[in-house]
Structure formats: structure tokens, C-alpha cells
Amino acid sequence: MTNRQPVHVTPPLATADQEYLELAAVRLLQHPKVQAAAKQTGAGWLERAKPSTEQRARFEGEFEQAVFCAAVNAVNQDPNYPRLQAFARFAHQTRGIKIPGTKCSNPNPDYIYRLVPIDGQARFAVYGLAPERKPVAFEFSVLDKDQVYLGNISGPDLVIGPDGRFTITIGPGAAEGPNHIQTTATAYQILIRDVLNDVATDRPYTLAVERLDPPTAPPLSDDQIADRAGAVIQKYVDDIAVINSGVMLKRPVNQWDKPAIHSGAAFISTQAYSGCLYRLNNDEALVFTVTLGNAGYAVVPVNNVWGGCNDYLHHVCTLGTGRAKPNPDGSYTFVLSLTDPGIHNWVDPDGMREGLSIVRWIGFDKSRPQVDPTLDVKLITLSMLEATLPPGTPRIDAAGRQAQRAKHGADYLAAMG
To answer: What's the CA gap between 116 and 83, in Å, rounded?
Structure first.
């Protein structure tokens, strides 16, 4: 039975559940069946993607993360014995064992994703403890196998006690208290998002999960998990490929649509999106002008075609408004370029001339009249930069950039290491 009174740990994602799942996933990946399946999946991904030399050079590191994410999924698929798993951590060591990172599947590094396996017939509870500095957005969702949203509780709707504690119940029955999502037979998984506006100060909610009904079967053996792991790895990679190669890479290059909230399929209706493939020459830059509207947060990210965020601890490959500096009028100007443009809000692609950039807005204030966010993106040559930037665009010098990078890596390791 899970501890009903979760306590804050350091780092905040290094919970007992997480440690168990990470070590189990490492063991699973040593199984001959799983190694063979992973090798086959990797070869197939390379063949389908036909990557450029630049993208091919990043494959091994990103594939290691993808396979490890899938392995964690494989060991945590039984709703009879659910554990709470986090997909947000950087590579680290647990008990002297190397644990790969889980910044995969087109992540925004400010987002912490956590998953719990459930079924639609049983009752579950997630116990929470609010941090001193709450995330700018918190979304607690129940999904089916196809990632369709069946129910959602947003942070502003969460009923929290005066001691910072709360309970969210999930099950087929009607609510007997606050914070309840009623399930149907197709319920498959809980997906939890914490969005940290500034990782130097914000922290995720501390959570623990419990199945309230007795299990209906014994735990799966290691061999049973290994038997299903190959299919889990293949599906994980296929899901990345569908979004990247099947959708984003087919869009017009360097053309972002108006921000839109999608409410169907795998999209959450509390988030706006605009994304496509970017492509740059050495003497070019993309200048993003972003307004929040009613959103609490927006981000300009860079991902490679494998769904990774490159060497994020040493390059600010993604920058959200919580760590960016605004223009005098409250808008934000971001510059995506291969060389440092000397402005504070530089999105550094770590030398990657092409990749994905799925701009997102979240944390909408539903208590106020709706004001839509906006996005304007211009492709320019670097010689045009000064004429393109709005007056008062925040600048930074070489010493400031060095300090920004050092603080960037240290802050993210403290929040998610």
C-alpha cells in the first residue's frame, strides 16, 4: 500500500516509486529478448527516417532515452499494482547504476509528465502535497489507450486543504467528495502535467498513488514483462515517428500557424499549440514575437527529429516565458539562430540547422474574458536582425551569457535531476 501522506524529496522526482521503476527498467533492458527487440526497432527507425548526417549523429543518444522510456512503461503497465512514474529527468545515477535521461518524445523541459496505469473498473486515489512555489499549470487527466482525454482536473479547480494536502479519486462511481474523475471501461492511464514557470523556484506537486480495490491477479513475472516489452518499445518509437515524420515534417518549413487549442484525439483542451519544422542557414535567424493573452506561460522549444532536446543542460535549446525577459510592452521576442545574437532570449539549437519547434501556451485564466495568445515568426538574415527587433529588446553580453548557461544547467538539475 502506498504512503497516503507524501513527503517532499530531493531531487523532487526521486521518489521510491521512481527509483523502483528506473532500476527495474535497467534490468529489463539486459534481457536478451528485449535487447533483440530494441536493436530491431532502432534499425527500423533509422531506415524509415532516412536522417541527414546532422540528425544521424544524434541518434544513439536519443534512441537510448526512447528505449529507456519505453522500458519504464513496460514495467509499469499493470493497474493491479500501479506506481507513479516521471518522464522529465536527466541522466543520473541511482545506487551507483547509470540511469538514462527521460527527456524524450518532443519534450518541453519545463514540463514534468507523470503516468499511472489504471483500469476503468477499479477505484484509485492519488494523494498530493502542494509545494511552496506551485507550478504555473497543473493538469490531471484520465486517458484511454489511444490517448483520448476522458476527464481532466486543472490546477485552479483543485480543492487543496489548508495544510497543502489533497486527494484526487478516480473510479467508475460518482464523486463522494471533491477532486473526482469518473471513469468508463476504456480508462487506461492517468497523465499528470506540472509546468514549471521558473525551475529555479517552482517545484512540482508531490504525489503518491494507491489502488483502492484489491488486485485481481498476481504481479507479472520478469519474463512476462520481457515478453511484452518489445511491443511496448516499438509502439513508443512509432508514436514519436507518427508525430514527427508523419505530421510535423510534412508541414511547410518555417511556417507557424495561428495558435490553436485542439480538443480532439491526443490533444488537451487547456493548451494552445503552433508547430512545424524549422530550417536555418548559418547567416539566418527566426525571430519569434509571442504574446500570452490569458495564458500564464508560453515556450519556444527546439527538438530534433528523434524527439529529443539535444544537450539541454549546456545549451538553452528551449526557453519559456518564466525565464525569458519581456519587451517593454509585455510581449516576448525570441531569436532562434545558430550563433549568439546577443539578446537575452536566444533559443540555442546546439548547432542543429533543422528540427522541430512546437510552440505552446498553457495556464489559461478562465476567470477573465478570453484574450487569445499571438505568434509572429519572421525568417531573416542576421544582417537584418537589428532592424527587425522591437525597441527595448533585452540584451546580454558574453559574460552574461556564460552566467545564464551555468545557472540554466544547475537549476534544471536541481528541479529534475
So the answer is: 6
